[in-house]
Model the fold of this input.
Amino acid sequence: MTRRTLSEVEEEVPSPGPAGASPLSHGPATASELNGLADTLFAEKVSDEDWVRAAELYRQAAEMGFLEAQFSYGVRLAHGQGVPQNFEESVKWLAKAARQGHPGAQDSLGVRYATGQGVAQNDEAAALWFRKAAEQGHSVAQFNLGLAYVHGQGVEQSYPHAYAWFSLSAEQGDSIAAESRDRVKEAFTADEVAKAERASGNLRLAVALLRGQDS
Done:
C-alpha cells in the first residue's frame, strides 16, 4: 500500500461538524491516518485551532476503535486540550483503552481513581490499574505504585515493595523515583537493604517475564 502524506490525508477529513455528527463521516482516511495527523497537529501546534482539530481527529479515530486514539482522546479530555475538560468522558475513553492493555491508559485511569476525578475515588482500583501498567514496564506507573506502597493506599503498606518499584522506575531514568528509592532506603538496616535489593531483582525478572509473555 502506498504511504500517503499528511496533507493528502487531511484533504479527506472534513472540518468538525455539529454535535451529533457521525464520527465516521471522514471519507476514506483510515483510523491510523487520522490518529497520525492528530499527533502531528498536536505536536506542531501553531494556534489553538490546531489542538481543536487534533482533538476532533482523535475522537473520530477513537470511535473507530483505534487504541492509541482512545488513549490520546482520553488524555485531551482530562487536560482540556482542544476540547472542554470533561473528566467523566475522559474516564470512559481511558477505560476502553486500559481494558485492551494500553499501559499509558492504565496508569492514567489509576490516577483518575486515586484523585476521584470523573469516577468515585477508590485507592484499591487505582493500585490495581497502576500495577497492570507497572507490570508492562510503564515507568510512571511503577513510581505511582511505589507511592501507593509507601502510603498504604489500596495496598498494604510496604517499604520493601515501594523500594522495589521505585528502583524499576529509576532504572528507566526517572530521577524522582530514584530520589524516592533513596529516601526509603535510609530507613532500612543493612540487612533490610540486602533483602530489598533481592526483592528488586526478583521483581525485575518477573516484569521481564510478563512482558515477554505479552510480546
User: Anything to note?
Assistant: The chain is about 70% helix and 0% strand. Residues 190-214 form the longest helix (25 residues).
